[in-house]
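Run log, item B.
One chain of 347 residues. Sequence copied directly from the ordering sheet:
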Amino acid sequence: MRLSYLAWQGRSATIFSAWHPAALKKNWPGISLSVVIALAATFVSTAYGGPQLLYALFFGLAFHFLSQDPLCRPGINFCSQTLLRTGVALLGARVTLEQITSLGAAPLIIVLIAVVSTVLMGCVVAKIFGRSRVEGLLSGGAVAICGASAALAISAVLPKTKENEQFTLLTVVGVTSLSTMAMIIYPLIVHFLKLDVTTAGIFLGATIHDVAQVVGAGYLISNHTGEVATIVKLARVACLVPAVVAISLLYRKRGEVGDVSRSPLVPFFLIGFVCMMLANSFHLIPHLASGWINDVSRNCLVLSIAALGVKTSFQSLASLGWRPVLMLVGETVWIVVLVLVMLKIST
């Protein structure tokens, strides 16, 4: 118990020290680079459309030559680690317990079965393609929960290796691309299957990877579909906490995340996620502040993706081969078919 307390104390001290003015001054060159990349990605996304996170990743890859620069490296690491965890923690401000319970039993059961089975399917597909279980959990969790945000959150508690970092980036590219395609294709599936507006919302919210694309696809059909899809998607986002805790405990028990005595039982940023969700649920966050928090969360994730892009080269992504791409496609097809079958059975 004392070891756990000391781990929490040490971890919180590390997090707060990263925001110390002296540390920020040291990190400023790398942070500035990530900010410039993020601003460029935001401009292109706003002016010409397309996923902001994907642009940030691709622009970051172009600056890989600065990844080992002694001036830029501390700030790049700060953005890819501390800002990543900060962004995930602030995601909790999007979710309330009222939104989740308002769905009723059937959609919640569908969401839970879809999330758990897709994560397990990720492990099965990884084994079939001769990839590691780490990659199966990462890709399955990203597809099952909330796309790029889930990939980043899960990667934060996985063993820190160069291969895992590369696979995380490939997963971000893959789920973002698949989400963008789904935003266009899935409304056509809804029309072809003649789903009513409520069922359509459940289908879209339970299958599309990223929140933004869920909202886009839902409101393409109707306002009611958009609202239902968003709430169902937020229920999936809420699954991020138990999923990451379970994965963290798994690798903590296996001794693959460094010194276990110094590693907190529950990742610090997940406590932040839960606190933000509870604060939002009990209306402790003003509506205006909630919008700001969501913007800060999004910006932190864009900056972290930009920094991760800088740390990775095109050659390293290409070296992963075609199997990871098929893994993501297979897991995406699985969750779509499973949700459609469950919706058919429940109606």
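Observations after the first pass:
- The chain has a mean pLDDT of 83.
- The radius of gyration is 19 Å.
Flagged for discussion on Thursday.
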